[in-house]
Amino acid sequence: GIPWPLSILRCNRGLNEMPPGGCLRVSLSDRDAKDNLTALLTAMENYTFRLEENEAGFTLHIRRGIDSPSC
To answer: What is the pTM of this model?
Structure first.
């Protein structure tokens, strides 16, 4: 329910606070937010993610550390 520019900023704050090996799950209902966040994560080093589409929208499972197993 958070507008996408704010959801990106909030997620970025969570990523910065995440310890190495940590996992963050982000639920999104807005396709633009999903597109912007996946573009941001693709450009960032040291993060991997997995995207799921579901009836509510999308869920991103984000892991800090490229050598860490996925969430």
So the answer is: 0.82
